[in-house]
UniProtKB/TrEMBL annotation:
Protein name (database record): DinB-like domain-containing protein
Source organism of this protein record: Roseivirga misakiensis
SUPFAM superfamilies assigned: DinB/YfiT-like putative metalloenzymes (SSF109854)
Family annotation (Pfam families): DinB_2
Residues covered by the DinB-like domain: 11-154
Organism taxonomic ancestry: Bacteria, Pseudomonadati, Bacteroidota, Cytophagia, Cytophagales
Length: 163
């Protein structure tokens, strides 16, 4: 069985940890221009939605070219700040369980196929130089690293004292 980079375990553990957080604590911002826990998790929802499409399309293509998106605008337009914390968590959990399943079901030869054409220099968390070949496997691992990074930010924001 293929690895899913522990995304399922990471998701379920974070969900359980964050479920006890009160809504008003999740909306606190560390600074005026910084995201709250709600907004960070909203960004992770947007990332899951965008990357799900990228991962599916990559399985039908010889390239890894995905559409970018304005992260700040997506968070603002969807107004995660005013949403219920538990609704945000449930949506994020379900999307990432689906992402885990998608990764797990991706055939090894599709994951490991080198792609010359890509734009991971623009859309990956840890970018890949434009002239360097890469794989869908790398992009999937990058997604998990991105999730873990932002979950760390959520933990930091939630552990702060009253703002």
């Amino acid at each position: 069985m293929k690895t899913d980079y522990n995304l399922r375990e990471i998701t379920l553990a974070a969900f359980e940890q964050f479920l006890t957080v009160e809504d008003n604590d999740a909306e606190k911002k560390p600074a005026y221009d910084k995201w709250s826990a709600k907004q960070i998790m909203g960004h992770l929802i947007d990332s899951a939605i965008n990357n799900q499409g990228r991962f599916v399309k990559a399985q039908q293509s010889d390239s890894l070219i995905g559409e970018g998106y304005d992260q700040e605008a997506w968070v603002e337009v969807q107004n995660y700040q005013s949403m219920n914390w538990h609704d945000i968590l449930i949506l994020w959990r379900q999307l990432n369980l689906h992402m885990s399943s998608l990764m797990e079901q991706t055939p090894d030869d599709v994951r490991s196929k080198e792609r010359i054409q890509h734009n991971l220099h623009e859309i990956a968390f840890y970018t890949v130089q434009q002239n360097q070949p890469t794989t869908l496997d790398y992009f999937m691992q990058d997604y998990v690293v991105h999730v873990k990074h932002h979950l760390g930010q959520v933990r930091d924001v939630l552990s702060m004292d009253d703002v």
